Amino acid sequence: MNRLGCLLLVIYAATSWAQTSTGPKRLEAEYYVAAYSQHYRVPVPLVRAVVERESNWRPCAISPKGAVGLMQLMPMTAQRLRVGDRCSIDQNVSGGVRYLAWLIQKFHGDLRLASAAYYAGEDIVSRRGLAYRNPDVVAYVSRIRATYLRLAQDKTEILEPAQKRDIR
Fold first, then answer.
1. 23-163 in CATH: which number?
2. Exposed site from 87, 113, 123, 124, fewest CB < 10 Å?
3. Taking the model in full, what pTM does it have?
């Protein structure tokens, strides 16, 4: 019994690592995040923050409410965005980034409102705006913002040394 428990723990750890590390699925997801973010002019750190928060980079994550995939698309949202397979990395990221781009445009570039609408739905956020103070939504937007800033800072730190070298 003890060996079985250890074996299950090792298998669980290995599959968790494979889904959240730099395995082939993660590299594929990173590729599509960068490509679709650039195409639809959505900040890459924002999309990465949403993916990290929504699914922790698991391509076919399923929420208790029925959202599926890297960007946790609900069935009606996926249908509206013409996403046929919510577990497909390509389709899911394409749909999720298109939805984010649409929300950013709808909320005139306000990433807080776009993030809140991504989580809670655009109708309630459209009606209430920043007056919408649901604690879950406020916490979600706060986490997205913190991750966005961290990821944007990481990119800046990577670019700064190269830029300093180019100045000489």
1. 1.10.530.10
2. 123
3. 0.79
